[in-house]
Design brief:
37% of the residues lie in helices and 12% in strands. It has 369 residues and is α+β, with helices and mostly antiparallel strands. It folds into two domains: 10-127, 2-Layer Sandwich (Phosphorylase Kinase, domain 1), CATH 3.30.200; 146-367, Aminoglycoside phosphotransferase (APH), C-terminal lobe (Aminoglycoside 3'-phosphotransferase, Chain: A, domain 2, Alpha-Beta Complex), CATH 3.90.1200.10. The strands form three sheets. A six-stranded antiparallel β-sheet has the order 1-2-3-4-6-5, with helices on both faces. A hairpin with a 2-residue loop joins strand 3 and strand 4 (70-76). Helix 4 packs parallel to helix 9, helix 5 runs antiparallel to helix 9 and helix 9 (311-337) runs antiparallel to helix 10 (349-367).
C-alpha cells in the first residue's frame, strides 16, 4: 500500500468527526485493501484514508473515511452485548440499496463486508451525504429565523409522511417485515429487551409494560418505517437548510405500523417548555422558537396522512415511543455499566430511563387505565 493520504485542511473538517476512540479503532489499511477489491467505483480511493469517528451516535459506530478527493462513511456494530437481531449490517445495507430508486434520500451504497476477519466485525461503506445535520443545536453556520425553523420542521415531518408512502413492493422490500401482528411483537419484544438489560439503578417499568400489553391496538396498516426518525438523522441542503436532502441510520428500519414510527420520533421531541432535568437529555433542536410542539407535530402528521385518533388512542403510541426510547437508553447504559464501552457520554443514561418512566406514568394516569 502507498503512504496515508495527506489530510485536508482543518477548514475542510467534517462537523462531528473526531479522533477515533482507542476501543473503536480498526485497521484502516485492511479496509482500504478490501475496498480496492470490492468497491464497484474505485475512483478517488487511492492510498490510505484518514479515519475519523462520529461521536454523536449511541448505537452502531460510524466513521469518516477521508480520501483527498472522496469522502466515504463506514458503519459497524458496537462491541459488547447486543440484542438479538440488532446491528445487522447486511440488512441495513440492503434496505438502502433497494430503497434508493424510489426514495431519493438515502446515501449511495459502496460495498458490504460480511468477513469479520477484516476489522473484527461486519461493516458496510457508503458515500457521504454532504450537508448540515441538526444535532443538539443547529450547526454554527446555520442561522434560521422562527419562520424558517417552522418550515424546516414541517419539511422534516413531510419527509416522514413520504417515507410511509413508499411502494414497498416496487422497491423489493416486501420481505423485510413479518406481516400482521407488528404492534404485539413490538410490545413483547421491547419488554423482553428491557428486562434483559435492566441494571440495579434503573426503574422497573413493570407498570408501563403491563399497561402497554393491556391497551395495544391492532396494526393500523403496514408500510416502511424508519424506526429511528430524528432531526439528527436528517441531512439538510447546504444552500437551503430548511430542506432535507438525506435520511441516515437505517439500522432499525422495517415494515410496520406508521403510528409506531411517529410515536418513536416524538419521544425524542424535547420542547422548550419541558422540565429542566428532561431538557438535559435533548439531542435535537426541537426547543427552537418556530418548532411545532409535540401535539402540533402529531396533528400535522395525522392530517397529512388522513388518520383520525382520539387522545386516548394516541396515548398508546406516545407511551410506547417513550418506553422504547428508555429500552434503547438502558441497552446502551448496560454496555457502559459492564465496562463494555468507556464512552462517558453514556454514564447517565440510567437517569434518562427513570425520567422516561415517570413521563409514561403521567400519560397513563391522564388517560386512565
Amino acid at each position: 500500500m502507498s503512504e496515508p493520504s495527506t489530510p485536508r485542511s482543518a477548514a475542510e473538517r467534517v462537523p462531528g468527526a473526531r479522533e477515533v476512540r482507542a476501543e473503536d479503532a480498526f485497521d484502516a489499511a485492511a479496509v482500504a485493501d478490501w475496498l480496492g477489491e470490492h468497491a464497484g467505483d474505485r475512483a478517488g480511493m487511492e492510498g490510505l484514508p484518514e479515519v475519523r469517528q462520529f461521536s454523536g451516535g449511541a448505537s452502531n459506530l460510524t466513521y469518516l473515511l477521508r480520501y483527498p478527493e472522496r469522502d466515504l462513511i463506514l458503519r459497524r456494530p458496537p462491541a459488547g452485548r447486543k440484542a438479538k437481531g440488532a446491528h445487522d449490517m447486511g440488512r441495513e445495507y440492503r434496505i438502502q440499496s433497494r430503497l434508493a430508486p424510489v426514495f431519493p434520500y438515502v446515501p449511495a451504497m459502496v460495498a458490504f463486508c460480511e468477513d469479520a476477519s477484516v476489522i473484527g466485525s461486519e461493516f458496510y461503506v457508503m458515500e457521504r451525504l454532504a450537508g448540515p445535520i441538526p444535532r443538539k443545536e443547529l450547526p454554527r453556520d446555520v442561522s434560521l429565523s422562527p419562520e424558517e425553523v417552522r418550515r424546516l420542521c414541517v419539511n422534516v415531518l413531510d419527509l416522514l409522511v413520504d417515507l410511509h408512502s413508499v411502494d414497498t413492493d416496487a422497491a423489493g422490500l416486501a420481505g423485510f417485515g413479518r406481516g400482521e401482528g407488528y404492534v404485539a411483537r413490538q410490545v413483547a419484544g421491547w419488554s423482553e429487551r428491557y428486562r434483559g438489560a435492566r441494571t440495579w439503578n434503573a426503574g422497573s417499568f413493570e407498570g408501563v409494560m403491563a399497561w402497554l400489553e393491556a391497551n395495544q391496538p391492532q396494526d393500523r396498516r403496514t408500510c416502511l418505517i424508519h424506526n429511528d426518525f430524528r432531526f439528527d438523522n436528517v441531512v439538510l441542503d447546504a444552500e437551503d437548510p430548511t430542506r432535507p436532502v438525506g435520511l441516515l441510520d437505517w439500522e432499525m428500519a422495517t415494515l410496520g405500523d406508521p403510528l409506531m414510527d411517529l410515536g418513536g420520533a416524538l419521544a425524542y421531541w424535547v420542547e422548550a417548555g419541558d422540565d429542566p432535568l428532561f431538557r438535559l437529555f435533548r439531542r435535537q433542536p426541537t426547543h427552537l422558537e418556530g418548532m411545532l410542539t409535540r401535539a402540533e407535530a402529531r396533528e400535522y402528521y395525522l392530517e397529512r396522512s388522513g388518520i383520525r385518533l382520539t387522545e386516548r388512542e394516541w396515548a398508546f403510541y406516545e407511551v410506547f415511543g417513550l418506553f422504547r426510547l428508555a429500552v434503547i437508553c438502558q441497552q446502551i447504559y448496560f454496555r457502559y455499566h459492564h465496562r463494555q464501552t468507556t464512552n462517558r457520554a453514556f454514564r447517565f443514561f440510567w437517569l434518562a430511563c427513570r425520567l422516561l418512566e415517570r413521563r409514561c406514568g403521567r400519560i397513563i394516569r391522564r388517560v386512565g387505565s
